[in-house]
Structure formats: C-alpha cells, structure tokens
Design a protein that fits this description.
The structure is a homodimer of 157-residue chains.
Chain A: H1 2-27, H2 33-44, E1 48-49, H3 50-56, H4 61-73, E2 77-81, E3 89-93, H5 95-107, H6 109-117, H7 124-139
Chain A binds a DNA duplex (23 and 23 nucleotides) through helix 4.
Chain lengths: 157, 157
DNA sequence: TATTGTTATACTCTATAACTATA
DNA sequence: TATAGTTATAGAGTATAACAATA
C-alpha cells in the first residue's frame, strides 16, 4: 500500500526539514538543535540524572555525556552529586542556562508557528497523537527496558 | 497551545525511534539507515546526478559524495560521466546494489507494517499528507531552490 | 558568470566496550 | 550482580569554503 510505504520517508523528510531549520535558527546562538532539546528537557524536569535525561531525549548515555561536557564548559548546565545515590550525578540548568533557554524558546517560536500553521486546524492534535503512538510502538522491545526508574524521579507523574 | 508546542518534539521522537529501529535492523546487512534511503532513492530514479540525488534525499552535495564513496567502494553503486554534461556524473545502482536493495526492502517491511499498524486506519493517509506539508512548508526559503523557480528568488543576498 | 563535483577540514551526534565506584 | 557514569575509540553524517573543470 502506498501510504504504508511512504510513511517512513515522509516522516524523515518532515523531521529533517525541522532539524535543518532549527539548526539554522539557533546557529547565531551557538547552540545545536539537539542541545536545545537537552536544555528543554532540563527546563521541564530539572535535577535529572544523566540516565533519565538520556531516556527522555532518547539518547545514549555516552552521547548525553558528550553533550553535557560541551554545555558544562559553556556554563549552561551543572552537574552535582546525587543526594542519595553516590554513583549518580544530577544535571540542572545554571541561571545562564535558564536565560539561554528562554531566548531559544522565543527564537524558535516562529518555527513552531510555521509548522502548526501548515496543518488543517482539526488535524493537528491527531498528528501529535499519531506521532507519539508511532514512537511508543517502535520503541517497544528495542529500548532496554529498565526497572523502576521512577524511584529516583523527582517529577510527579 | 499545547499541540503546537509538542509538535516538534513529537516529530523528533517518532523519527528517532524509526531511525534507531531501522539502524538496528540493517546493521546485519552492513548498511546504515541513511545509506538505505540513498539506495531507495536510486532504486526509484536511476541515473540521477549527485546533485539531484542530494535534493531528493535532502542532503548536502558533500555529504552525498561521502556516502557515495563508501557505497562505491563496496560495489553497490556506480558513477559514470553524464552523457551531455561533462561536469556532472550520473549515479546508479549496480546489479549488486539492486540485489542489496531488494533484500533491505524486504527486511524493512515489518518496520513499515509496525508503524502503519499503530495508526487508526482512517488517519494514516492524513498523517502522511500532513508530514509532507510540514516538510514543504519548512523548506520554503531555506533550501536553495534550483531550476526555473530560482529566477524569482531574490531574497538571498 | 554560474554550476557540478572534489577536496580539505572540522564538529556534533552516535555507539560499543572496557573500566570504576557504588548499590 | 546490577547500575551510574567515565573513558577510549571509532564512524557516520553534516556543513563550509576554496578549488577545478565545464556550461
């Protein structure tokens, strides 16, 4: 079926267009699109462990570390030892990081509006719902399922 | 609005899930997900120039070249001088490349089915349509459009 | 002059495996 | 034994700029 066969490439084309546009927009702020995602993830749930952070932005622990090293060097994030687990380190935005994120969020607004505006108003919600469903389904059995992560989670579900 | 704000990350999560799953599936065939896209693009339109190829898979010319060098070394694609334009080179699949692509297409089928199956049947077509629309909209004014259209594009200094 | 492709270069993200130190 | 993080290492994709050959 055509729709089935076109779905993967259509998804890729849409994401790549978003990624490139975001990259271009944030270049003058010296932040990559993925670094923005990391900052945004921290802005929503501060004091995550590196592992939690990686899971929420679907990145490898060593990838996350590489990104954190870059951002820490620039004073946008900070890492502290976890209060109850000496193995872990909690990651949070510095005041400068928080400022930077607010800038970026503002700078990215027109992109979000462009995307949203391209859609029929009554179909946007279904799009987000279906994208989320696809992500969930594709991750089943692929992502290393871990135990009760929520034990360390500071965020209330 | 929540839908507007969640759209970019939902798109990213869905694509990354697809990308990782595809990467894992094709690893045993020694082909990356992006290399598969290149092969698929060639399978649909053989004898493209490198530039055309790059445009169709939305990749930079130098990126395309890097990928082609890898694939040429493995005998999956071949480059020949363009019949009428001595500057250009046409790219096409070798017989081995064609065989490889058929294998990959088959190997990827369950992923396409998983994605498609996760959607309400009456919403799949709209999803593809809206993803395509998003890609088109976001690429406007960002991608260097070539050919006749470029004549009207005076906005780039 | 504009365009196709190459080259050199650099950087981010990605990922695996071996390692430490804790749990 | 299992987990959090680090380190070393490697590779793919990305992108820019300077360049040659050709249109």
């Amino acid at each position: 079926m055509t729709v089935k066969n076109n779905l993967p490439l259509a998804l890729r084309a849409a994401y790549l267009a978003l990624h490139r546009r975001t990259e271009a927009r944030f270049a003058q702020h010296d932040v990559t699109a993925d670094q923005f995602v990391l900052l945004a993830t921290l802005a929503r749930g501060d004091a995550l462990t590196q592992r939690e952070l990686g899971q929420r932005m679907s990145s490898d622990p060593s990838t996350v570390r590489a990104m954190l090293v870059l951002l820490e060097r620039r004073g946008l994030i900070q890492r502290e030892s976890h209060p109850t687990d000496a193995r872990a380190r909690t990651v949070s935005l510095t005041p400068a990081g928080r400022r930077k994120f607010r800038q970026l969020w503002k700078a990215g607004n027109s992109i979000r509006e462009t995307m949203f505006g391209a859609l029929p108003p009554d179909e946007a919600a279904a799009l987000v719902r279906n994208l989320t469903k696809i992500a969930e389904t594709l991750n089943q059995g692929c992502v290393p399922v871990r135990g009760p992560i929520a034990l360390h989670s500071t965020e209330v579900a």
